[in-house]
Design goal:
- The chain is α+β, with helices and mostly antiparallel strands.
- It has one domain.
- It has three helices and five strands.
- It has a five-stranded antiparallel β-sheet with strand order 1-2-3-4-5.
- It is globular, with a radius of gyration of 19 Å.
Length: 113
């Protein structure tokens, strides 16, 4: 007689959420414009279990002034992308990254003047 013991299945480890190459290209082009103007100096990219975050810093030793976040779970509701300010206020949220990044257009106009 053979006794078969059930082996508990390992919990599937989710891969962290990350930005795609095209998303990073869009974000870095906006970032580069502000770096050229001297407003932004550093960035960080975090890939977490539930979201991906691109943080923008005025100086490397400070808290991020903006966070561009990708939340795939919110894609059908409010949109997967959002820009969060230093205070935690959501400045813009949407389904299309290009539209969300337009929130920085007003600041770019101030830089150009």
């Amino acid at each position: 007689m053979r006794v078969v013991q059930s082996v508990p299945r390992k919990a599937k480890l989710k891969e962290p959420i990350a930005f795609s190459r095209s998303e990073l290209t869009r974000i870095l082009s906006v970032y580069g414009q502000f770096v050229a103007a001297g407003d932004w100096r550093d960035y960080a990219i975090d890939s977490l279990q539930d979201r991906a975050v691109f943080s923008v810093f005025r100086r490397a030793s400070e808290a991020p002034i903006y966070r561009i976040e990708k939340h795939p779970k919110l894609a059908r509701r409010q949109g997967a992308y959002q820009i969060v300010s230093m205070t935690g206020a959501i400045l813009k949220r949407g389904h299309d990254l290009a539209q969300v990044l337009k929130a920085f257009d007003k600041q770019r106009l101030k830089i150009a003047r």
